[in-house]
Amino acid sequence: MEQKIDEMKVINARRQGYSIRKISEIYGIAYSKVLEMLHTTQVDAEDKEADAYVEETMKKLAKRK
Question: Contact at 8 Å (CB) between 14 and 44?
Fold first, then answer.
């Protein structure tokens, strides 16, 4: 139930134009968790910030191998 409430907060804030970082700060939800919620719900299907984060994370993981 708590997860669903957090998702609703994140979705509503994103639709109001808040950045992913700001949503994370406002609600005290980890940035990666906010990204996961947005990805799952497809609220930001073409979000450049989310795309950049995922791309950077993938590069870091590739370097570790």
Answer: yes
Q: What pTM value is reported for the model?
A: 0.60
Note the pLDDT of residue 45. Answer: 61
Regions of the chain where pLDDT drops below 70: 1, 43-47, 50-51, 65
Full domain range(s) for residue 51: 2-64
Number of domains in the chain: 1
